[in-house]
Amino acid sequence: MRKQIATLFLIGLLAAGVLGWREANKPGWFPLQEMRISGLANTTVVQATEVVGIEKGVNLLGVEPRSVKSRMETLPWVRSVHVKRQFPSTLIVRVVEKVAVGMVREKDRLFLVDEYGAIIKPLEKTDPLMLPIIVSAPGEEKAAQVVWLINLLSKHAWLKGRISEAVGLPGGRWALYTKQGVKLLLSQQTDQGLELLRRLQEQFAVLDRKIRQVELRIPGKAMVRFAL
After folding, report:
1. Cα–Cα distance for residue pair 180/178, rounded to 1 Å
2. pTM of the prediction?
3. 36 strand-pairing partners
4. Number of domains in the chain
5. Which of 60, 84, 137, 161 has the most CB atoms around its CB within 10 Å?
6. What is the pLDDT of residues 136-194, one digit of tens each?
7. 63: helix, coil or strand?
8. 105 and 201 share one domain
9. Which phi and psi angles does 31 have, rounded to 5°?
């Protein structure tokens, strides 16, 4: 008798659990009232909301955070996402975006690249980013060249905002072009060359003059070619 009672009790619990789950998953039990998306800089709220694809009023219990995370990570600017359901009615989405540090050419198009040298997306007219174009040396890995150059310019912050294009040359040499059209020729000893250029800029404002080129490939020397 006791065994039968225990069995009936267990069946009752299971039935209650199933009914409770069904009841909890009815539309409107925990209706979604607010979706908070933070961390967006280059991705619009409209783009993020469309990709998430969840309408207001759906049952929050039926929202799968991993699924939301996967959909968000398809957006080009998104590096990582953390999704949390905050009961009774809020979905929290925290985004970490990629940082564009330069552009590279692929055939006839320009692409934004991040701090790891990885392509983010094609450059579009709506992108308000003025970043240097980086052309890797023949036979060199593009991503590695991007990372190397960005690290170099980070060490020489006074010059970073002046550069419009950087072209890698064979043998670890570089040609940098300023936004004013001045060509800077660097040897493998790039740090020494740029330090010399910094001193010349402080003393003579050489980059603000009408010059075409500064030759920095001879250690300790700088040769300036004036514009005609």
Report:
1. 5
2. 0.79
3. 92
4. 2
5. 60
6. 998 889 999 999 999 999 999 999 999 999 999 999 999 999 999 999 999 999 999 99
7. coil
8. yes
9. -65, 135
Give yes or no: residues 114 and 193 share one domain: yes
In a domain, 179, yes or no: yes
Which of these ranges, 1-10, 45-54, 63-72, 158-167, has the smallest mean pLDDT?
Answer: 1-10
User: In the structure encoding, which two tokens stand for residue 115, read together?
Assistant: 């701090």
Task: Quote the CA–CA distance of 53 and 45 in Å, as a whole number.
Answer: 12
| Same domain (yes/no): 156, 72 | no
* CA–CA separation, 96 and 82 (whole Å): 9
Domain identity same for 65 and 108? no
3-state secondary structure of 86: strand
Is the domain of 86 the same as that of 57?
yes
Structural domain harbouring 212: 100-226
Instruction: Collapse the DSSP code of 228 into the 3-class scheme (helix H, G, I; strand E, B; otherwise coil) and give the result.
Output: coil
Average pLDDT of span 205-209: 93
CATH number for the domain that contains residue 135: 3.40.50.11690
- Whether residue 82 is found in the same domain as residue 178: no
Claim to verify: residue 143 and residue 65 sit in the same structural domain: no
Domain boundary pick from 76, 97, 118: 97
Strands (E), 27-122: 34-38, 78-86, 90-97, 100-106, 109-114, 119-122
- 3-class SS shares of the chain: helix, strand, coil, % to 5: 35, 30, 35
- Burial of residue 170 (CB within 10 Å: 0-12, 13-18, 19+) is exposed
In the chain, beta strands by DSSP E: 34-38, 78-86, 90-97, 100-106, 109-114, 119-122, 133-135, 163-169, 173-178, 183-186, 211-216, 223-226
Position of tokens 């759906």? 58
